[in-house]
Automatic annotation (TrEMBL):
Domain of life: Bacteria
Name of this protein: Uncharacterized protein involved in copper resistance
Statement: the UniProt record of this protein carries the keyword Magnesium: no
Gene Ontology terms describing biological process: intracellular copper ion homeostasis
Source organism per UniProt: Congregibacter litoralis KT71
Molecular function GO labels: copper ion binding
InterPro entries: Autotransporte_beta_dom_sf, Cu-R_B_prcur
Keyword annotations: Signal
Signal peptide: 1-29
């Protein structure tokens, strides 16, 4: 065996020995003083008050809030969503609370299932009902945030909702947010002023200034119009089927 062959065989021996050592259990043993492994699926949480605003309506003025929070990992979360309207001149209003479990089904998309409870209150009026909830929440192409959901009440009433928002950045701090919402029902629920078919369409636009990412006051306008059987029920009670409001409020999260 010549010198070149001896060198080649020596290199092969060294490489083979290194591979065997690296594959042995001792190669992966933790050395004293090594840092702890990094958790690649940590638990985290967030609570967002997307709307907390005063609405100067064509009728009675209202205080409006729309909040949601979650806690969990990137794949599994528990959600709470709470929204409502309260008339500033009387003890009348409506509340909606949702408790949901979500599972990530695609990047930026969560499947959500859970329960929803509604309450409508006022002079001589106090109604409650509950729903099962099935929906998704995520970021659509062109960065539209959408929340379609299907609801089935304890009385078997079926309804659906779609909410979509978009953030248009004039600068890193000045942001215009258009918002679209519509509700559809398969059944009449007169006690809650809901008729079958298209219930309503709501359009809004809010201009906010983020002093910090976590805190942003805003001003805007909001328009809502009822349709179909829902509008007929409102007319029969002497109410208005459309409303234009000037709004002012604050958006914050932590």
């Amino acid at each position: 065996m010549d010198r070149q062959q001896c060198v080649a065989w020596s290199l092969v021996h060294v490489i083979a020995t290194g591979i065997l050592i690296s594959l042995s259990p001792m190669a992966f043993a933790e050395e004293p003083g090594w840092p702890e492994p990094v958790e690649d699926n940590p638990k985290a949480g967030m609570f967002l008050v997307d709307q907390f605003e005063y609405r100067d309506n064509e009728g009675a003025d209202t205080l409006r809030w729309d909040t949601q929070g979650w806690y969990g990992t990137g794949f599994n979360k528990l959600w709470v969503k709470f929204e409502g309207d309260d008339e500033t001149s009387s003890s009348a209003g409506e509340l909606e609370l949702q408790a949901l479990y979500s599972r990530m089904i695609a990047p930026f998309w969560d499947l959500q299932v859970g329960l929803r409870h509604d309450r409508v209150y006022g002079p001589g009026l106090d109604q409650d009902r509950s729903f099962a909830v099935l929906g998704v929440q995520g970021l659509a192409p062109y960065r539209f945030e959408v929340e379609p959901a299907l609801f089935v009440s304890n009385d078997g009433d079926v309804s659906a909702r779609l909410v979509a928002t978009y953030d248009l950045l004039f600068s890193q701090r000045l942001i215009l947010q258009p918002r679209f919402e519509t509700n559809i029902a398969a059944n009449n629920a007169p006690a809650f002023g809901v008729g079958s078919g298209l219930n309503d369409v709501q359009l809004g636009v809010r201009l906010r200034y983020e002093f910090r990412r976590e805190f942003a006051p805003y001003v805007g306008v909001s328009w809502k119009r009822q349709y179909g059987n829902t509008a007929d029920m409102t007319r029969a009670e002497g109410g208005d089927i459309d409303n234009l409001a000037v709004v002012a409020g604050v958006r914050f999260w932590f």
